[in-house]
Amino acid sequence: MREVTLKHIAEILEISVATVSKALKDYPDVSAKTKKRVKELAETLNYKPNSFAVNFRTRESKTIGLIIPEVVHHFFSNVIKGIIAQAEKKGYLVIILQSNESYQLEKKQLGLLVSKRVDGVLMSLSNDTVDYKHINNVLDRDIPLVLFDKTAKLINCSKVIIDDRKAAFIATEHLIRSGCKHIAHFRGPLLPLNSIDRFLGYKKALETYDIKYDPSLVYTCNEVTFEEGYNFTQELINTQKRVDGLFAVSDLVAIGAIAKLNELKIKIPEQISVIGFSDWLMSSAITPSLTTIGQPGYLMGKKAFKRLFVEMAKIRKKQPFKYKTIELPTSLIVRNST
Q: Which residues fall within 8 angstroms of residue 306, CB to CB, at 6 or more apart?
């Protein structure tokens, strides 16, 4: 079956191609009767606009690229849902790529998206990303790019973030106010800004409440996994140091810690209180349920796309704009682990 075109419809109805085009777009200078005839025939023939031709005329691909560290992740899956929900409303297709926390893969994927002529890019940086030349090159080409969650201060672009330092302070403060005086921290990798800020928020809370910082109570999770939380908890107990509280960089790490503490028959929260970060689906399902910091993934996705949409429109119309940092609120969710 040959492709149905505007010309094909025009020939059948014996009107001009321009009139068919205007009728399908509801132009006011086309009569209601003609619009009805054109739309009915278009539906009968299953007419679909040639997206390539439309995109060529408008200089838009109607696609955006999304690069995230991992797809199978409760927080990032919520971000994806928020982005897609907004993108669909505006008629955009989202190309989703996973960097696997690899700088080299992230760099390759960004180049691929540019070659596919996406209208804009949304990104959360990998833990390995130390050089930002690949990102700056995209921005220099007037391709709008918005960072979210894992960002970098040295990249000049719009960002959607939370105040990780403040949230970590609140998490540690909650442990202190519930009676903890010897608080361990299973931190994230040394590089990502959000990992650094959560560590600094932990230290600031200790300082604020006159609790001496003990570096031997801090363990670095390079992969931020259940296994690291599980194994570091065993190491922590083996030191025989007095510990009555634990703040983990993520819920997955905290759940690993709870699994080991349960195995060792150490009572939570009577002997050790545990708090996580992000409010994963499993956080309320484990025993004891995990106290955590609620991180608004879905809202972050929505806000990130909305900001990108604004910048895509500005660049398309060659209008000036200023980069914007959007900070979203977090919340302390108290459950049975504290």
A: 86
Maximum pairwise Cα distance, the chain: 89
Q: What's the topology of domain 59-162+297-330?
A: Rossmann fold (3.40.50)
Written in H, E and C, the secondary structure of 33-100 is HHHHHHHHHHHHCCCCCCHHHHHHHHCCCCEEEEEECCCCCHHHHHHHHHHHHHHHHCCCEEEEEECC
Strands (DSSP E) found in 149-243: 158-162, 183-187, 218-220
Averaged pLDDT, 31-45? 90
* Alpha-carbon distances, residue 231 vs 163, 228, 256, 257 (angstroms): 29, 5, 8, 8
3-state secondary structure 81-125: HHHHHHHHHCCCEEEEEECCCCHHHHHHHHHHHHHCCCCEEEECC
Query: Which pLDDT tens digit goes with each residue over 106-141?
Result: 999 999 999 888 999 999 999 999 999 999 999 999
What topology is assigned to 164-294 in CATH? Rossmann fold (3.40.50)
Under DSSP, the state recorded for 245 is: E
Flag whether the pTM goes above 0.85: no
Residue 287 DSSP symbol: S
